[in-house]
Design a protein that fits this description.
Order of helices and strands: HHEEHEEEEHEEHEHHEEEHHHHHH
Structural class: alpha+beta
Oligomer: single chain
Distance between the termini: 50 Å
CATH architecture of the domain at 394-505 and 551-639: Orthogonal Bundle
CATH class of the domain at 394-505 and 551-639: Mainly Alpha
Radius of gyration: 76 Å
CATH topology of the domain at 394-505 and 551-639: Helix Hairpins
CATH superfamily of the domain at 394-505 and 551-639: Methyl-accepting chemotaxis protein
Largest sheet: 6 strands, antiparallel
Helix content: 55-70%
Number of helices: 13
Length: 654
């Protein structure tokens, strides 16, 4: 069963596969570019956001530092540090005008005296401001100093301090300091955290000191590795370098940090990247586009294949009919909208017409061949490789014509030879019959002579007269014997002529056999059309073979007959000599009658031998006569077969 797809179906499949592969490849390329661009944009955004957040936080921090620096300079300028009471009153006034960001402000000098904006004093008599970290740091740095978060003794809240030394005559008189609530810093960080952005601050030891989540620290610092180990990699990178932190759902979190000027702090900004969501959204849109494109392209491809591939399938169907032997096809109903389709349909129609015409002509020629007419040849113009068929048919016809002509000539030769053989056989039969009659006469004569000689032998004693009479008869017998010798010579000559005729018949039979063999070979080349002629050639060959055998048998018989006739001639010659002796003996005197008697006895024995030889010769001549009759019958049959062969060959028209 043929399971191959049609051209239109295969075209649809190929176009659909190519379209899907193209769209998928394009989508994958776009998704890859989107992911790469989004990743780059995310990293760039993280960097920019980190710089912006650090700048905002530094701006807030610088504003606070500027405020501290302004107040410290005011104290230096007004020399109010000489009167701690006046200075404290001034600080109380200033603090009351501050917002909630400032938790407290105060001034402490090297004499362990303090002016507090809320008039706070430590209940611990051993409390020494000079031992506080904000005081020591400002003195040591001789500039702005920012502390780590610590718990305020005055209010018990977590605060940071910003302090600056106050100079008097080139010497540090004291330190002005303001406490800022950590919660206010967290609010600042919370304002800087927008959307999925996380902002927190770590110190030089990478401990989180400020985080937007108030419950995360619970008044204590948290090592950044304990918060998320991936932040260790972030902090190990150069400043401003984004790095992967973690994955939340399908989103990826990247983080970067910047150092805060004037401090040992680092502000860390972590932001979620929605690359996966964007990629999924793009994939969804691409799938929808692929589906719509697939449907539209499928409709267009179906119309295209129905319009341009359908006619090709119709032509294929017509060619299938041609392959099944249906040569007369109609392609007029096939729509040809392209040059190629028109040429294909035209070529199919022309192919069908040419093959149909060729088959009709070849069938007509072969029918004529079957009827014996080899004059019919192809007349159409056979294009391309079909020309070989035309050449082959013409060559077959020409070769069959040559074979039939040669066979007709051979049949004429066989007919002529058979007639010659028949005439020779008739002559041989006539001569043989004459020999038979002559031998019959010779036998009767020999019997008579023998009887007479016996009587002469018995009556030899009766006297001379009887001898004289016998002498006379002997003379007559000698004349007869001479005639017999002449007849035997004629028999010998006729036998030799028959032998020569038999040789000619044998030669003709051999030629006939050779012609029959050539005819059988040519008939085999002709195939089925030469079977009838092959049978005739076989019969002729068999007849020639049989004739050869018969001729050889006749030749052997004639040889034996010739030997017998030769021997008969010798015997007849001997008889003649004996008769001559008898005549001579009878011419002698009666006195030698006794000797004649003795000689007659010897002659009697010789005559008995002659009689036996004559009988044997008679039998051989009888056989020769029978063979001659058979030769006549065979030659007549050969002539009839040759006539029949000639009639059969004459039926062919060449």
């Amino acid at each position: 069963m043929n399971t191959k797809r049609t051209l239109s179906k295969q075209t649809r499949i190929v176009f659909n596969v190519l379209m899907v592969m193209t769209l998928i490849t394009t989508t994958i390329f776009q998704v890859g570019n989107l992911a790469i661009d989004t990743h780059k944009n995310t990293l760039s955004t993280i960097t920019q956001h980190t710089d912006l957040t650090a700048a905002k936080f530094e701006g807030w921090l610088n504003s606070q530092i500027m405020m501290i620096d302004t107040m410290a300079r005011e104290i230096e300028t007004s020399k109010s540090f000489f009167n701690m009471t006046v200075l404290e009153n001034h600080l109380v006034t200033l603090f009351s005008s501050m917002d909630d960001t400032v938790q407290s402000m105060y001034y402490a000098n090297a004499r362990n005296e303090m002016a507090h904006g809320e008039r706070w004093r430590s209940a611990d008599p051993d409390y020494d401001v000079r031992e506080r970290e904000w005081y020591i740091g400002a003195v040591e740095s001789n500039g702005i100093h920012i502390t780590e978060p610590f718990v305020s003794i005055a209010k018990g809240e977590l605060v940071i301090s910003i302090s600056k030394p106050v100079i008097n005559s080139g010497r540090i008189d004291g330190v002005f300091c303001a406490n800022f609530s950590v919660e206010s810093l967290i609010e600042v960080l919370d304002q800087l955290s927008e959307g999925d952005t996380e902002v927190f601050i770590v110190n030089s030891e990478n401990n989180i000191i400020f985080h937007e989540d108030k419950n995360l620290l619970a008044g204590q610092m948290l090592y950044i590795g304990d918060y998320d180990k991936h932040y260790i990699d972030v902090m190990s990178k150069p400043e401003g370098t984004p790095n992967y932190v973690t994955t939340k759902g399908i989103d990826t979190v990247y983080a970067s940090y910047n150092k805060i000027d004037g401090t040992t702090w680092k502000i860390v900004v972590a932001e979620e990247s929605h690359i996966a969501m964007q990629v999924l959204a793009h994939i969804g849109i691409s799938i929808m586009a692929i589906t719509v494109s697939f449907i539209i392209t499928g409709i267009l491809i179906n119309r295209f294949t129905d319009r341009y591939m359908g006619p090709i399938e119709q032509v294929t169907g017509l060619l299938s009919e041609v392959s099944n032997g249906q040569m007369k096809i109609d392609a007029s109903h096939i729509a040809c909208e392209t040059k190629e389709l028109d040429e294909l349909v035209s070529a199919t129609t022309e192919l069908s017409t040419n093959i149909s015409n060729y088959i009709l002509e070849i069938s007509d020629i072969l029918t004529n061949f079957a009827e014996g007419d080899f004059t019919k040849t192809p007349e159409q113009v056979y294009i391309g490789d079909f020309g070989h068929i035309k050449e082959a048919i013409i060559e077959i016809a020409d070769k069959l014509k040559v074979v039939l002509k040669e066979t007709m000539i051979s049949a004429d030769d066989v007919s002529y030879g058979s007639e010659h053989i028949a005439n020779s056989a008739i002559q041989l039969a006539t001569i043989t019959m004459d020999q038979h009659e002559l031998l019959l006469y010779f036998k009767d004569t020999t019997d008579t002579i023998t009887n007479k000689m016996i009587e002469d032998i018995k009556a030899i004693d009766r006297g001379y007269d009887i001898i004289q009479g016998m002498t006379h008869k002997a003379s007559n017998s000698q004349a007869v014997a001479n005639e017999m010798v002449s007849a035997m010579g004629q028999i010998t000559e006729s036998t030799k002529q028959i032998s020569e005729v038999m040789s000619q018949i044998d030669e003709i039979a051999n030629q006939t056999n050779l012609l029959a063999l050539n005819a059988a070979i040519e008939a085999a080349r002709a195939g089925d059309n030469g079977k009838g002629f092959a049978v005739v050639a076989g019969e002729v060959r068999e007849l020639s073979t049989k004739t050869t055998e018969i001729v050889r048998d006749i030749y052997e018989m004639l040889k034996i007959n010739l030997d017998s006739v030769t021997k008969g001639e010798e015997m007849v010659g001997l008889t003649t000599d004996v008769l001559s002796e008898i005549v001579s003996a009878t011419a002698e005197s009666a006195e030698v009658s006794k000797q004649i008697k003795d000689n007659s006895l010897q002659q009697r024995e010789s005559l008995d031998e002659i009689l036996q030889g004559t009988g044997k010769l008679f039998e051989e001549v009888s056989k020769t006569s029978s063979i001659s009759q058979e030769n006549v019958a065979i030659s007549e049959e050969l002539a009839a077969q040759a006539t029949s062969l000639k009639g059969q060959i004459e039926q062919f028209k060449i």
